[in-house]
């Protein structure tokens, strides 16, 4: 019998704690498959965020640091400068990266830190129970925007990838989605590219992955996937935002 | 090695490099700017790495990353910047990582001023950041001692896998004194817990301070406190000066301890016998030493002298434990007590004794 699927070596056996229908599990799996395919597990050091992926250090089967909220790019900077021959990645959500950690990500990118960032954007704070994120869409109802996000008082959703594409030290920036198989495959190619850019020493690389939060969006998993397609992608267009040869 | 004339801040940086520190992450703030400047100039020459971070917050988190990756690493700042680092310091303690943090204290609260102060005592010894924790706090009183304590500080940090703070002030950072860099063997310990990449078949290294299970967190904190007990036993340092037969003992650290020595000499000329207890470690605090002198019949009172409104005095009172009266004199906001004013204070105490 042909084996068509197996658990990546770069994932531990620990069952994910993520909610049903959440796409964090898919994204974890893609990152781990890429690490396996590039044969870099033994030299990879990951940095987990604060937020839903706070336990990423229990799932990625490599040396890991757990960082304070938003500080993963600074922690990764410290690791990478000590071990320039290792592969260092951060895995961060939108509250972590786009709100409290916006300074860290911009300056890590600007220094051209040779790290890879996986930025999971689900337009909400998941772990703390569904608060408004900087990436929440206009009109989106959350526990802290109960009347819908109003641009006059809460501002507009931040397009992080487009912003970081303007930063000189960024070598590769792409936004992908995981709402269907075709896009999952594209996401994997982007993640692989983001690790290759680091291996080639080109500079900072980030993949923004549009992701679901059925629990806090108040939708079924299927409705959530549709919501990405119909609501998030029009505001957060997919594609490569920056690529340095 | 011959003595060289050096500014305090630069001596700290040179001592760190000689102690094997190759990673420095900092952010500009007066009056400690000579430290990062010296590091920026010298670290690349010895194969090290200097980064001017985007903030003190980022700087301490770079330290967290580098320390977890196994490096001998430090940061420095001054009071408001140290406040910003507190979250990171708490994480570093929680994750049991060694590093050196230098605070060249200036007056506060708020933006305060840029003149020397000792008003960060509480912050340094009572935690500063969140959670149950301590770190060894070293308080040099001369540039020579600053150099020696910086070098010792890295070793203490490694020994306990806990950050160490050197608490100076704007005076010590900015003044120049002759200093000798004593030859010492730098032995960097093995760090099997550091993240270097997980070889097949070996256990993974995880740098972490999250314990979601309450019992696990309590167990972890108890483990930290067993280390603190060891630190109290092994690392407490104190200088006692002229305490034999002293009727009043001044308790002071750092810059104010130097002033106290002047006061003791002035008082001696007037027939007043004073002593000095100078804590060199502010944590662990030399409470046993203070208690011993409080027991002595000749000791009639203590005067705690600080460049603050009275912070260490609380620990002095706890150590004396009511056995003798404990008085306080201090200037704050960047003002420095004059020996004359302190002596006047002593005379007032003698009148009511």
Could you describe the 3D structure shown?
- The complex is a heterodimer of chains A (245) and B (353).
- Chain A has helices spanning 24-38, 56-59, 72-82, 94-100, 102-110, 151-154, 160-165, 181-199, 214-217, 221-235; strands at residues 44-48, 63-66, 87-93, 116-121, 170-177, 204-210, 239-243.
- A 7-stranded mixed β-sheet of chain A has the order 2-1-3-4-6-5-7, sandwiched between helices.
- The model of chain A has no long low-confidence stretch (mean pLDDT 97).
- Chain A is built from 10 helices and 7 strands.
- Chain A has one domain (24-243): 3-Layer(aba) Sandwich (Rossmann fold).
- Chain A is α/β, with parallel strands linked by helices and 245 residues long.
- The termini of chain A are far apart.
- In chain A, 38% of the residues lie in helices and 17% in strands.
- In chain A, helix 1 crosses helix 8 (181-199) and helix 4 (94-100) packs across helix 5 (102-110).
- Chain B folds into 2 domains: 4-185 and 210-235, Thiamin diphosphate (ThDP)-binding fold, Pyr/PP domains (Rossmann fold, 3-Layer(aba) Sandwich); 240-352, Rossmann fold, CATH 3.40.50.920.
- Chain B is of the alpha/beta class and 353 residues long.
- Chain B starts with a strand and ends with a helix.
- In chain B, strands 3-2-4-5-7-6-13 form a 7-stranded mixed β-sheet, sandwiched between helices. Chain B has a 5-stranded mixed β-sheet with strand order 10-12-11-14-15, with helices on both faces. Chain B has a two-stranded antiparallel ribbon with strand order 1-8.
- Strand 2 (63-66) of chain A pairs parallel with strand 9 of chain B.
């Amino acid at each position: 019998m042909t084996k068509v699927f197996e658990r990546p070596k770069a994932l531990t056996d620990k069952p994910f704690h993520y909610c049903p229908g959440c796409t964090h599990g898919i994204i974890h799996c893609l990152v781990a498959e890429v690490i396996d395919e590039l044969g870099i597990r033994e030299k990879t050091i990951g940095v987990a965020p604060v937020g839903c992926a706070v336990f990423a250090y229990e799932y990625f089967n490599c040396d890991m640091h757990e960082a304070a909220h938003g500080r993963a790019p600074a922690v990764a900077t410290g690791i990478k400068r000590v071990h320039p021959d290792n592969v260092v990645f951060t895995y961060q959500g939108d509250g972590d990266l786009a709100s409290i950690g916006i300074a860290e990500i911009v300056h890590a990118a600007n220094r051209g830190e040779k790290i890879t960032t996986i930025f999971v954007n689900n337009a909400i704070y998941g772990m703390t129970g569904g608060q408004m994120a900087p990436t929440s869409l206009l009109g989106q109802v959350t526990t802290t925007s109960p009347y819908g996000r109003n641009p006059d008082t809460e501002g507009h959703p931040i397009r992080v990838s487009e912003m970081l594409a303007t930063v000189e030290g960024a070598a590769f920036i792409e936004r992908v989605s995981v709402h269907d198989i075709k896009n999952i495959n594209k996401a994997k190619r982007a993640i692989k590219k983001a690790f290759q850019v680091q291996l080639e020493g080109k500079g900072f690389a980030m993949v923004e992955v549009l992701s679901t939060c059925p629990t806090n969006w108040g939708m079924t998993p299927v409705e959530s996937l549709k919501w990405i397609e119909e609501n998030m992608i029009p505001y957060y267009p997919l594609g490569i935002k920056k690529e340095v040869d | 090695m011959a003595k060289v004339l050096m500014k305090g801040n630069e001596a700290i940086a040179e001592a760190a490099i000689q102690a094997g520190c190759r990673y420095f992450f900092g952010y500009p703030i007066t009056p400690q700017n000579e430290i990062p400047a010296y590091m920026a100039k010298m670290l690349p020459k010895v194969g090290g790495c200097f980064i001017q971070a985007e903030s003190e917050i980022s700087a301490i988190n770079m330290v967290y990353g580098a320390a977890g990756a196994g490096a001998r690493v430090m940061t420095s700042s001054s009071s408001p910047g140290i406040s910003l680092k507190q979250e990171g310091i708490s994480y570093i303690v929680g994750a049991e990582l060694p590093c050196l943090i230098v605070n060249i204290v200036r007056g506060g609260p708020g933006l305060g001023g840029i003149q020397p102060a000792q008003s960060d005592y509480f912050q340094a010894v009572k935690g500063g950041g969140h959670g149950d924790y301590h770190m060894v706090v070293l308080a040099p009183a001369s540039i020579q001692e600053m150099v020696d304590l910086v070098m010792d500080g890295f070793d203490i940090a490694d020994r306990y896998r806990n950050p160490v703070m050197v608490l100076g002030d704007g005076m010590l950072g900015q003044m120049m004194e002759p200093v000798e860099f004593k030859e010492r063997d730098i032995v960097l310990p093995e760090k099997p817990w550091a993240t270097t990449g997980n070889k097949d078949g070996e256990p993974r290294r995880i740098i972490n301070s999250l314990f979601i299970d309450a019992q696990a967190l309590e167990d972890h904190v108890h483990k930290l406190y067993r280390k603190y007990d060891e630190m109290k036993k092994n690392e407490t340092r104190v200088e006692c000066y002229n305490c034999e037969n002293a009727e009043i003992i001044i308790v002071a650290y750092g810059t104010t301890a130097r002033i106290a020595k002047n006061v003791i000499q002035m008082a001696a000329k007037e027939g007043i016998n004073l002593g000095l207890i100078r804590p060199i470690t502010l944590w662990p605090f030399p409470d046993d030493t203070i208690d011993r002198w409080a027991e002595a019949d000749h000791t009639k009172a203590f005067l705690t002298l600080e460049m603050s409104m009275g912070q260490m005095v609380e620990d002095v009172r706890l150590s004396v434990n009511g056995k003798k009266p404990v008085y306080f004199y201090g200037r704050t906001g960047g003002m420095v007590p004059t020996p004359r004013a302190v002596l006047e204070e002593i005379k007032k105490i003698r009148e009511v004794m």
